[in-house]
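[job 4471] stage=fold_predict status=RUNNING
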Amino acid sequence: MRHKQKMNLVSFNSSVTAWQPHVVDVTESNLRNAWNWVKALTCYGTTNTLDALQLAFKDTLTKAVYLLTDGRPDHVSHTPVDFNPF
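[job 4471] inference complete, writing structure tokens
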């Protein structure tokens, strides 16, 4: 992550939670805080991949997403999918 300009993290299971409301600058302090946030995560519930990706792409500064998961998507989302690549 040190070679990136901005970052954010999204945890997803039965619910979806962003580490920060928007992407933040990659600094030593932010990396340390993000690592502490990651170490406190626990696995439980379903794998809510769709809502996690939608939350990540809501931030207009998002340029890329790295998806790390422990399983297949198995969460039934009630969020309508509006995908328009153009």
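[job 4471] summary: The chain has a mean pLDDT of 86.
[job 4471] exit 0
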